[in-house]
Design goal:
Layout (H helix, E strand, L loop, with lengths): L3 H22 L4 H22 L4 E2 L2 E2 H23 L1 H4 L11 H29 L9 H28 L1 H9 L1 H7 L13 H5 L3 H13 L12 H21 L1 H6 L1
Antiparallel strand pairs: 1-2
Helix pairs in contact: 1-5, 2-3, 3-5, 3-6, 3-10, 5-6, 6-7, 6-10, 6-11, 10-11
Amino acid sequence: MSSPFRKTLTVWKAIFLKDALSRFFGSRAAWVWLLLEPSIHVVFIAVIFTIINSKTMQGVAVQPWLAVGMLAFFVFRRTAVQVLHSIDCSKPFFAFREVRPFDAALCRGGVEAFYMFFVFFIIGGVLAAAGFNMFPDNLITCVLAYFGLWFLGLGYGLISSVSMRLVPDSGFILQLLMMPMYIISGVMMPIAIIPEPYRGLLLINPALHGVEAMRIGFWGELYHQTEDISVAYLYAWALVLVVIGMALYQALETRLVRQ
């Protein structure tokens, strides 16, 4: 008889491989579409900044500054969206007693972390080939910011997934919140140039701390940063959301599977 831990790892491996294969090889152009969305965002906003003759942002060239900020936010956003739909995409697995809804959510989020790493690497490589500095000054800070944003997206997705099944319209509202989050997370505007008291209000948003921490990790010596950015604050929010999400999944597991 295998141990419960070994069974859990087997379940995670099966769901992870299923989601990874469907995401990366579900169609002939799967890889193209996975890279296309973040690339279009970066190019479109970079063109706008070029038109208004803005070449640098807080001491850093605008193209890599935008790319790092957008990709960092996408780690949060795409993880949240994928976890939100994890139950619907893993219904066949629930025929097996060993598979639980949280397993599906965690593995689908894990696939997104794996995928976004390669998107970061590819787009960063293209910018480096174009002559921009894309080697992090502090790799540890970048890694902490990356997984903090992923952890935050996991918690947001767990809560959103349960809310959508309890109150169907809430899922639509929670996804709509991603648009203002995109704007107030420092993706297109550095927090250091926002005056008080508005800066303090924006700093309540934990995703902003992750986005700015990622930029600080890349260009710690060049980037004109604010002292209010805290990776610990990001992880505190992420931990609270994940714990609440796990509790909801545990309490409503039977209902989630039946729906």
